[in-house]
Design brief:
It is built from five helices and no strands. The protein is an all-alpha fold. The longest helix has about 35 residues, at about 85-120.
């Protein structure tokens, strides 16, 4: 249940990221909201990893903890395969990639909502 709430919070963070970026800095590559929301997203991702590893009884190393925060694109697939094995790790990785795609879609939706509902 806690992991599900974290995933929902990641989706809301993605939506807010797109909406705030369009509202605060329309047409710009970076927004003042980017850094705080990225920090929030990384924190939520780490919390998910922490809860998942406890649930599975996987012993986390200090280096893997740091890697999940600094280079999650490499560390999380590694963790998924190590904690689940090859077959279930592959399925988990595909689900994670779907989650990334969903977050991109939510970010785009937040951007478009602000553009079409407020700024247009």
């Amino acid at each position: 249940m806690k992991k599900t709430l974290i995933i929902i919070a990641l989706g809301l963070t993605a939506f807010a990221s797109g909406a705030l970026a369009q509202y605060l800095a329309p047409g710009q590559f970076y927004s003042p909201s980017d850094a705080p929301l990225r920090f929030l997203a990384v924190t939520l991702l780490f919390l998910w990893y922490h809860l998942d590893s406890e649930q599975r009884g996987y012993r986390r190393s200090g280096w893997l903890n740091v890697a999940v925060v600094c280079i999650a694109v490499v560390a999380l697939p590694y963790y998924l395969f190590r904690s689940r094995g090859a077959r279930r790790g592959g399925v988990a990785l595909l689900l994670a990639l779907g989650g990334v795609g969903a977050c991109w879609g939510l970010q785009w939706a937040g951007h478009d909502l602000v553009y079409y509902a407020i700024q247009r």
